[in-house]
Amino acid sequence: MGQGTTQNVAGKSNAGKTHIIVVGNEKGGSGKSTSAMHIVISLLERNYRVVIIDLDARQKSLARYIENRQAYADQHNLKLTMPDVHILERVEGGTTVELEQQDEVNFSNLIDGLMGKYDYILIDCPGSDSYLSRLAHISADTLITPLNDSFVDVDLLAVVNPDTYKVEKLSLYSEMVWEARKRRAMKDRGTIDWIVMRNRTSALDAKNKRRVHDVLTQLQKRVAFRYVPGFGERVIYRELFPKGLTLVDFKNNGNEKMTMSHVAARQEIRRLMDDLQLPGWDKAAVAAAE
Ligand SMILES: Nc1ncnc2c1ncn2[C@@H]1O[C@H](COP(=O)(O)OP(=O)(O)OP(=O)(O)O)[C@@H](O)[C@H]1O
Ligand SMILES: [Mg+2]
């Protein structure tokens, strides 16, 4: 493991603008927090200033991941890269209109206070619809939707014909993003770069894998997202949470044994970071630093 030292490498330039990354999908357990954690640590590794907003105030998975990381670093005397963390709770007790107004004020105040101080704000959304989550989607410069490799998950994006696997109509989550894009355009003429990444793809189920691929390929034109390969199903993604570590923390420096699965996972994380096309992310510099 890299003993937490961040590398000073060339290529860091975000033109002073804070870029908002939102990780969202109303489907629970699709890999939002796991992906978010790996993206955050990848950015920190490149010396970007990163702050997390955890909107899942009930589970706080991402904030807990960071807590574990701090505790592990303290216990083992390691200097690990660490993002700043905010948890934003939904307001409770009042009429819907009042609650939404207060959520809106709290959300804007938090974002306004962070803008300009960081290169990236990463917002991890809960696995269900909430007003705060909608506000986050509207504010996204990059929206990342991890999707488990199953038609149960695809169903939140589109209804698919059971015989032909053709896309029949859009469903809940795609409609919500569509609405968020409209509201964003009205707000500041901004656009949302929407990326759908597959998660937990299995080497075993080639038929299902290909069908999901075909549907997402059809859908990406219709709904205007970029569909990227994402992560495979790997035990290692589940094991690192208690230590707060990510695959990004493992280095080829001989301190930790890297299995084939570690190496493959690191490669898919690097590929995802390249696929995101974030401002200032210099593919060539990252490859050279490996
Ligand atoms: N690529 C993967 N391979 C294996 N396990 C994974 C992978 N991605 C995520 N997991 C596991 O799947 C579970 C759900 O992941 P995670 O908590 O990241 O999802 P989530 O979308 O944030 O969930 P929620 O909607 O509850 O917030 C966790 O146990 C996680 O360790
Ligand atoms: Mg989560």
Question: Key features?
Answer:
seven-stranded parallel β-sheet; binds adenosine-5'-triphosphate; 15% strand; 43% helix; two-stranded antiparallel ribbon; alpha/beta; binds magnesium ion; 290 residues; 9 strands; Rossmann fold; globular
Describe the fold and architecture.
By secondary structure, this protein is α/β, with parallel strands linked by helices. It has a single domain (19-285), classed as Rossmann fold, CATH 3.40.50.300. The chain contains ten helices and nine strands. The strands form two sheets. The protein has a seven-stranded parallel sheet, sandwiched between helices. Strands 6-7 form a two-stranded antiparallel sheet. β2, α2 (61-75) and β3 (84-87) form a beta-alpha-beta unit. α1 crosses α2. The two termini are 13 Å apart. The model is unreliable at 1-13 (pLDDT under 50). It binds adenosine-5'-triphosphate and magnesium ion (MG). Magnesium ion binds at residues 32-33, 56, 61, 124.
Query: What is the helix fraction of residues, given as a range?
Result: 40-55%
Structural class: alpha/beta
Q: Averaged pLDDT, please?
A: 90
The fraction of residues assigned to DSSP E strands is 5-15%
pLDDT < 50 stretches: 1-13
Count up the helices: 10
Order of helices and strands: EHEHEHEHEHEEHEHEHHH
Secondary structure tally: strands: 9
| Count of the domains | 1
Give the overall silhouette: globular
Sequence of strands across the biggest β-sheet: 3-2-4-1-5-8-9
